Amino acid sequence: MITVWGRATSGNVQMVMWAIAELGLDHKRLDVGGKFGGNDTPEYRAMNPNGLVPVIQDGDGPFLWESAAIVRYLGATYGDEQFWPSSPATRATVDKWAEWIKTTFGPALLAGLFWPLIGVPPAQRDTAAIAAATQKMKPLASMLDARLAEGDYLGGNDICFADIIVGTLLYRYFTLDFDRAETPHLRAYYDRLSERPAYARHAMVSYESLRAK
Ligand SMILES: N[C@@H](CCC(=O)N[C@@H](CS)C(=O)NCC(=O)O)C(=O)O
Known about the structure:
The protein is an alpha+beta fold.
């Protein structure tokens, strides 16, 4: 049994929950963080000194945090050859995109657009900064679009751990109100993910409760 600490509206929790669902793992999730609180207690910080969600524990194993590290742990432990390629070179070829989403595309989307649009009331928005972030997003989306022209998923014909790390944010990317680059392959990839029950259930989670009025 895997225990997950983290609210369902957190993109990083969504990533972990989607991986657990794709792998069909027995689990329970506890609502922690955001309006639920509970992540700033000494007990919680003993599990994750950052006081952030998600945290997981697999059985009586160690407490794990950092969503992408958790997905890699789940892939290495429970994934088949498609989900978690055993060849280091094959794995790194998809993992570089997972790392890039976390370090490059994700921050550009979340810090540049998602929080400035969702976390700030319309009258208080920095429209110049949002316009600049919109332009900055376009070449990044085009870069991912070109990669996804190569196949249905990052690792070929079916999903792998890197698709989970890359794909989770796409719900926010495609539903947020801003001017996106023309990216037919990225859009087709997102549509393909949306047809997966595990993605629809765990990654396509409304963020309306996070919207500043
Ligand atoms: N790099 C970390 C980031 C974790 C993080 O920023 N979590 C946010 C939610 S997405 C959080 O805990 N925010 C405080 C809260 O929900 O109370 C990861 O990928 O897991």
